[in-house]
Structure formats: structure tokens, C-alpha cells
Design a protein that fits this description.
This protein is 44% helix and 16% strand. By secondary structure, the chain is an alpha/beta fold. The protein folds into 2 domains: 109 residues, 3-Layer(aba) Sandwich (Rossmann fold); 194 residues, 3-Layer(aba) Sandwich (Rossmann fold), CATH 3.40.50. The strands form 2 sheets. Strands 1, 2, 3, 4, 5, 6 and 7 form a 7-stranded mixed β-sheet that branches. Strand 2 and strand 3 form a beta hairpin. Helix 2 packs across helix 3, helix 4 packs across helix 11 and helix 9 runs antiparallel to helix 10. The model has no long low-confidence stretch (mean pLDDT 94). The structure holds nicotinamide-adenine-dinucleotide. The site of nicotinamide-adenine-dinucleotide has 25 residues, from helix 4 and helix 5.
């Protein structure tokens, strides 16, 4: 059921899930286990081909390695993606098969929720393996839905970047939020409480309209959100949205959001610098969720989670200031910092 391809230039191991009995297919990528077990969520999404699914998993797993390293967590990076079947399917069966695959990796990979997966799915995984987080825990202990922590880290980062680097107040500024799912909706609530003006969009237009009314936000079409007049653009949907077509249309001077892999390519990071737009690297600012997941796995408390999430914005400011000093893309600066952390651990282990 699980085939293994070891090595490769981008990852340590790729596991292909191909269950003939149930038709469940997916990929687990372990990008790095240098700092600890590869930790990263499971995405349940429809892909047009296995190649597309693998490419997404590889990119996401690399992002997790860098995210975990920069957040100071004792975890490497990994990611799982499962093909979402078209039409009717039995969700329990999908996550039972996935749980068996995670169990087969004997703790080298720790999973949790990501786009398209829920706590109920992780409960099914938990019946097969203990290498899963994102579940209910006792009061005061880390655990449960990681999204509010992700939203908090993004909000604090946005505020710090606006006020400490770009010298404008987030209160009264206009923030365009793309995607009002778990992270985007939480971020909107924090921004609203802080007095920011909101423009939102989601491909689920009905939900977006209802949410906008509740929050007193302006709602626009999903194809318009990147072009609206805003001070900040907060991508909170899927990746690859910052590209050669979208960047010239952006009016925002700051990009700070929860989505993973926002840049379509490294060249787009350079293009943002050329357009005078400050980009808060996605995996730096959206680390709140994995901080909560890792604390749950290590049986730590919500107080410890809060302390670590509160450190995200300061880390971001350091990266942004270095990037501005050197006129380099912040994403490149962050990548190098993460690579150094992983390389120095590898060296000290080898010594
Ligand atoms: P979610 O599935 O709850 O929300 C995503 C939302 O985006 C959905 O409402 C969806 O309809 C909408 N959407 C999809 N495509 C869109 C488009 N083109 N335009 C507008 N809206 C669109 O997922 P989530 O948990 O909120 O995660 C959002 C992003 O943040 C993902 O990239 C995820 O990998 C990343 N992330 C999430 C967490 C977390 O704690 N949940 C942590 C780190 C990173």
C-alpha cells in the first residue's frame, strides 16, 4: 500500500499511498528530520494529476522544515497530501488508510490538520497511530484547532510590520483578506477588534457575504480581492497567488497572511522588492498553528504556546530589517536563516 522513494535533491523520503482496496491515494513527504520528526499537516484536496499532488507536497514539506526551524521547534518538516475523490466517498475510510500510512512511518512523521481536513478526521487517524496532533486536550494543555494561533501570529506580525517597519497604524488601515476559512476568519475578527477596515473575498461567495455583513466588512469577488485599494493584502487561501500576473496589480504596500507558499517562485519575491511591496514570509508569520501542534504533541501548556506565538512578530521584524538593509527579498533572508539552523544541527550531530 505504501511505496517508498528515498533520497532526491529536495527531500529525504517520499511515501506514495496507493490503496487498491479503497482507492485512497496520497503522498507523504519527509523533507527533513534533522531537527526531529518531520511535522506538518495533511491536506485533502483535488489534484488533476499525481505529479501536481507530489509537487504540492514537496513544496509544502520544505516550507514546514523552514517554518519549524525558524520557530525554534524540535521538529523537521513534512507534509501529507491526499487526493480528494470526486463525487461521494467515505471520509472515515480515507483517514483510516491515511492513519495506517502514518503509523507505518514509526514516528518519523507527525501529522495534523491542514486545508480540507478536520479534527474529526484526525480522531480517525488517532485510532491508527499516536503520531498525530490537532485533537482535543485537557483545559490548559496545548491542543485542538491550531487556526486561532495561526491567526494571532499573523495579526501580531502584520501590526508589527506596519507600525515598526512601514510606520503606519494598522488601526484605521484597510486590509484585504483573501479566504475567510479557519485562519482568515480568525484574522478578520482580530483586525476588526483592532479597528482596521476590512475587504474580504472567498470562493464561497454566500459564506463571504454573510460573514461580511456580520463583521461590517466590504465583500468583493474572489477574482477582485488582489486588486482592491488596500494598505495590506492578507492571503489566507491557497498558495502561488503572488506571481508575475498578480503582483503588478497589487496596491497594498504590505503582504502578510496565513496561506502557505504564497510566492509562485523566488523571482516573484524579487519582483515584490522591485514593486516596493514588503512581503512578510508566509512560513515565518503563520507558524502559530505548528507551534500549537508541536506543543500538543510534546504535552506542553497553552501558556507555552502563547509565549512562543508572541515571539513570531519580533522574529519577523529582524528578518524584514535585514532584508531592507541588504535590499534583498525577505523570503530569501528567512530561507537562509532556516537553512543555517538545519545545517548547524546536522554539523553538530556529525561531530
Ligand atoms: P480553510 O480551508 O479553512 O480556508 C481556506 C479558505 O479559502 C476557504 O474558505 C476557501 O473557500 C477559500 N479559498 C480557496 N481558494 C480561494 C480563492 N482563490 N480566493 C478566495 N478564497 C479562496 O483553510 P485554513 O486552515 O484557513 O488555511 C488557509 C491557509 O493557511 C492555507 O494555505 C493553509 O495551508 C495555511 N495555514 C493554515 C494553518 C492553520 O492553522 N489552519 C497554519 C499554517 C498555514
Amino acid at each position: 500500500m505504501v511505496q517508498i522513494f528515498e533520497g532526491g535533491s529536495f527531500q529525504e523520503r517520499i511515501y506514495v499511498i496507493n490503496d487498491d482496496n479503497t482507492g485512497v491515494t496520497g503522498i507523504i513527504v519527509l523533507h527533513s528530520t534533522v531537527l526531529g520528526p518531520a511535522a506538518g499537516g495533511c491536506r485533502f484536496w483535488h489534484y488533476d494529476s499525481q505529479g501536481e499532488m507530489a509537487a504540492d507536497a514537496v513544496r509544502l514539506a520544505k516550507g514546514m522544515s523552514y517554518k519549524n526551524a525558524l520557530a525554534g521547534l524540535p521538529f523537521g518538516g513534512g507534509k501529507a497530501v491526499l487526493q480528494r475523490p470526486e463525487g461521494d466517498f467515505d471520509r472515515r475510510t480515507v483517514f483510516k488508510v491515511f492513519g495506517e500510512a502514518v503509523a507505518a512511518l514509526n514516528g518519523d512523521y507527525v501529522t495534523a490538520e491542514d486545508v480540507g481536513t478536520t479534527m474529526a478526521d484526525m480522531r480517525v487517524v488517532r485510532q491508527q497511530t499516536s503520531y498525530v496532533a490537532g485533537l482535543e486536550t485537557a483545559k490548559g494543555m496545548a491542543g485542538g484547532d491550531p487556526s486561532p494561533w495561526t491567526a494571532l501570529g499573523v495579526f501580531q506580525s502584520m501590526k508589527a510590520a506596519a507600525e515598526n517597519v512601514l510606520q503606519f497604524e494598522l488601526r484605521g488601515a484597510t486590509v484585504a483578506v483573501q479566504g475567510i476559512g479557519n485562519v482568515g476568519s480568525g484574522l478578520c475578527h482580530l483586525l476588526k477588534q483592532h479597528g482596521a477596515n476590512l475587504v474580504i473575498a472567498d470562493v464561497d461567495e454566500t459564506r463571504a457575504a454573510v460573514f461580511a455583513t456580520e463583521l461590517g466588512a466590504k465583500c468583493v469577488g474572489a477574482d477582485e480581492i488582489m486588486e482592491v485599494d488596500a494598505d495590506v493584502f492578507a492571503p489566507c487561501a491557497l498558495g502561488g497567488i503572488l506571481n508575475s500576473k498578480s503582483i503588478p496589480k497589487l496596491s497594498a504596500r504590505l503582504i502578510c497572511g496565513g496561506a502557505n507558499n504564497q510566492l509562485a517562485s523566488d523571482a516573484d519575491g524579487i519582483s515584490l522588492v522591485e514593486h516596493g511591496i514588503l512581503y512578510a514570509p508566509d512560513y515565518v508569520v503563520n507558524a502559530g498553528g505548528i507551534i500549537n501542534v508541536s506543543a500538543e504533541y510534546l504535552q506542553e501548556t497553552t501558556v507555552q504556546v502563547e509565549q512562543r506565538v508572541n515571539q513570531i512578530s519580533g522574529r519577523l521584524i529582524g528578518i524584514l530589517q535585514q532584508a531592507l538593509r541588504q535590499s534583498r527579498p525577505p523570503g530569501t533572508v528567512a530561507d537562509e536563516m532556516a537553512q543555517q539552523i538545519i545545517a548547524s544541527t546536522r554539523k553538530s550531530e556529525a561531530a
